[in-house]
Amino acid sequence: MTKTQKHYLRVFPEETVDVVRPELEAVKSLPAVLKAFAEATGWSLEYSSGALQQNRPSNTSDDTRWSTPIKTGERTAAGHLVLDMTVASAAGERPRIDCQAARNLAASLGLMLGELQQTQNSLWEREAELAAGVPLVAMGEDERHLAARLEAVLEGGAEAVNAQAAALYLLDEGTSELKLRSCWGLSRDRLLKPARPLQGALADLEALLGHAVVLENTQMMEQWRAPEKFASAVCIPVSSPTTILGTIWIFCDKPRDFN
User: Fold this and answer.
1) Are 156 and 185 in contact (CB under 8 A)?
2) In angstroms, rounded to a whole number, what is the distance separating the alpha carbons of residues 88 and 94?
3) pLDDT at residue number 11
4) Minimal CA–CA distance to 47: which of 63, 64, 23?
5) pLDDT tier at 207 (50, 70, 90 boundaries)?
């Protein structure tokens, strides 16, 4: 008597998620800027992505703590810069510039970071809008931007197969290049990179023929010219009933198959 194996349909409902704007994670030069600020002024300056803190002097007489928000035009700030001379004081050093000059410099850096964050947000949104071919229209405050919805779809797809990242690449009008339009689990500075030539992108070319390409190990990832360095991946086509649009990549940090 043989046992009958039962198969069940796995359903993954789409859940509504809050819009999470890109953080300053892609500003790779920020740690170096903060370090240079401390070396030049004698004051310690740190970036925090926590809750907004209004500009405030500390309760101490020498005003060793003060913060300024990084404003991006949203209701809440992207974070804040905290000016702190505690470390320098503990080492017996004195700041090289006075308190007000340090505040002015920190506030100026905060304004610049806010402008940079606005640019990153705009890039994030425009890439998603270009991916869907929709006109650039203003969205209501209560509506999730298309970029957030696309990212949520990629996140759901990746998590459904226990993967760590996903990316959507779409063909240009000349069908000669693939441009990253949305991603999850990858740094958003990837959106700044130029489009990938379709020529030589072996896995993408195979997927655009209508096949799912499964790359089970790093050797296959290199052989098939995967766009990101992961241990394994699957590349699937994106298309309408009449048009091939691009590819979706699902990345995993360990060798595996995708059944």
Assistant:
1) no
2) 7
3) 42
4) 23
5) very high
| Structure tokens that stand for 243 in this block | 């048009």
Angle between helical axes of 146-160 and 99-132 (0-180°, round to 10): 80
CB 145 within 8 Å of CB 136: no
Separation of first and last alpha carbons in the chain: 28
| Percentage above 90 pLDDT, the chain | 32
**153 CB-near residues (< 8 Å, 6+ apart):** 14
- Per-residue confidence band for 205, with pLDDT thresholds at 50, 70 and 90: very high
Question: By three-state DSSP, how is residue 144 classified?
Answer: coil
Residue 88's nearest CA partner among 79, 76, 97 is: 97
Structure tokens at 148: 């957030």
Cα distance between residue 253 and residue 259, in whole Å: 16
Q: What pLDDT, on a 0 to 100 scale, did the predictor assign at position 142? A: 42
Output helix, strand, coil percentages for the chain, rounded to the nearest 5: 35, 20, 45
Residue 206's H or E segment, with its range, is helix 202-208
Q: Return d(Cα 43, Cα 197) in angstroms, integer.
A: 47
Task: For the chain, give the number of residues.
Answer: 259
Which of 222, 122, 235, 124 lies closest to 178 in space, CA to CA? 235
Q: 90: part of which helix (H) or strand (E)?
A: helix 86-90
Tens digit of each residue's pLDDT (9 = 90 or more) over 5-55: 444 444 444 444 454 444 555 567 788 888 888 888 888 888 877 654 444
By C-alpha distance, which of 230, 236, 206 is closest to 217? 230
